[in-house]
Amino acid sequence: MLFKQRKKVAKFGGSSLADAAQFRKCVSIINADQARRYVVPSAPGKRFAGDTKVTDLLISCCSLSGGGDWQPVWNEVKARYNGIINELGLTLSLEDEYAVIERALSEGAGYDYVASRGEYLCGIVLAACLGFDFVDAAEIVRFDSEGRFDPHTTNALMSSRLAKSYRAVIPGFYGAMPDGTVKVFTRGGSDITGALVSRAVMADVYENWTDVSGFLMCDPHIVDSPRPIKTITYRELRELAYMGAGVLHEEAVIPVKLAGIPINIKNTNRPEDSGTMIVIDSDDLPCDELITGIAGKKDFAVIRIEKDLMNTEVGFGMKVLKVFSDRGICFEHLPSGIDTMCVIISRRDIVGRESEILSEITRTVSPDNIDIETGVSLIAVVGRGMKSAKGTASRIFTVLAKSDINIRMIDQGSSELNIIIGVNDEDFEKAIRAIYGEFGAL
């Protein structure tokens, strides 16, 4: 009988690779499990409060290369890597790589190339530590000629190349366009690379190693020591990430979700912690908690439109939303009644354009009344356990009322996975603490 060898992809964030001591932790973690065959590193992050991330140093070099003196900052970058190499006792030299980057800087290299060199150099060092193959992400992560990520070509290139390496280090954050020009993802894009590698090798688990032991039920800056989330579905993660909860890059979910690969968020500094497991949506998944997490954002605007018999006017909503789409503005929510429609949008998207938007809506649909309110916060209470429990919404509203918090808006999707509550900006933190006290506190 043939047994399938387990494969894990381990992505390490910048804090996990900030210095030689952190490198040793990562190497120990990787060597502790032979299934960790593919590793995706970020660039070294901050070593202490007030320190500067390597990527930020490189971006400074790029800015200065247009006419300033970039050499002192570049020397800082080289000192970071040389210090790690020396402390680890490696016989590795990066002088050839440094020379290539220096030449590019002297010739005015672009942002993408310079910013990506942190991960590139870190990948070379980590591969030398582990004795793994080094695979340059520019060879296997592809963007099209317009700079748009090309998932199909990437998966084909990556699957073919990594099949030739039993163990490999692939730097995160960047790839290349068809002509070889380096292109980066948005900041935090190493999470995406890790997910792409996981899909290409069909990993059993995608481990994302960072400096926290997984997701917490809510923001620890608002609630002291919130409980960790042990298991969360992709759908719940999407809802919480959209509302501001951030441990994992939002786009990193897509490749592994398509392939049905779970993600395990782990703590490099506390590898014994179980962390948070992110799994496929499943009605059969055990659910011990009613509420999975609470997240929110401030500073929304509500445009309220009133018109008698609105519901009988075909295309009314489409005409209103076209006013926003014509101006490149996305809406967040659309709570409505028979004769009312509210469009909730981020206030920063309409600053200085309020009169223009209200005038255009008035011209387009001739409402009986239209106004705009600002200073609204949205809070999402997310949990797959809510759909099988009675009285969840009542408990939320009751605890907010007892805390003297006015509810400005209520919105619940048909999936019953989440409830969105609108409150005044000044009540935002108070509301989150009240809801957590009702559902999350032990």
Q: What is the overall silhouette?
A: globular
What do the pLDDT scores average to? 91
Q: What is the element string, with H for helices and E for strands?
A: EHEHHHHEHHEEEHEEHHEEEHEHEHEEH
Please, how many helices?
14
Blueprint of the fold:
Elements: E1 8-12, H1 20-31, E2 36-41, H2 54-64, H3 71-88, H4 95-106, H5 111-130, E3 133-134, H6 137-140, H7 151-162, E4 168-169, E5 174-176, E6 182-184, H8 190-201, E7 205-210, E8 231-233, H9 234-242, H10 253-259, E9 263-267, E10 276-279, E11 293-306, H11 316-325, E12 340-346, H12 354-365, E13 369-382, H13 392-402, E14 407-412, E15 418-424, H14 428-439
Helix pairs in contact: 2-3, 2-5, 7-8, 8-10, 11-12, 13-14
Task: Write up what this structure looks like.
42% of the residues are buried. The chain is 37% helix and 20% strand. The longest helix is centred in the first third of the chain and has 20 residues, at 111-130. The chain contains 14 helices and 15 strands. The mean pLDDT is 91. Helix 2 packs antiparallel against helix 5, helix 8 runs parallel beside helix 10 and helix 13 (392-402) packs across helix 14. Strands 3-4-2-1-7-9-10-8 form an 8-stranded mixed beta sheet, sandwiched between helices. The protein has helices spanning 20-31, 54-64, 71-88, 95-106, 111-130, 137-140, 151-162, 190-201, 234-242, 253-259, 316-325, 354-365, 392-402, 428-439; strands at residues 8-12, 36-41, 133-134, 168-169, 174-176, 182-184, 205-210, 231-233, 263-267, 276-279, 293-306, 340-346, 369-382, 407-412, 418-424. The chain is globular and about 75 Å long. The protein is an alpha/beta fold and 442 residues long.
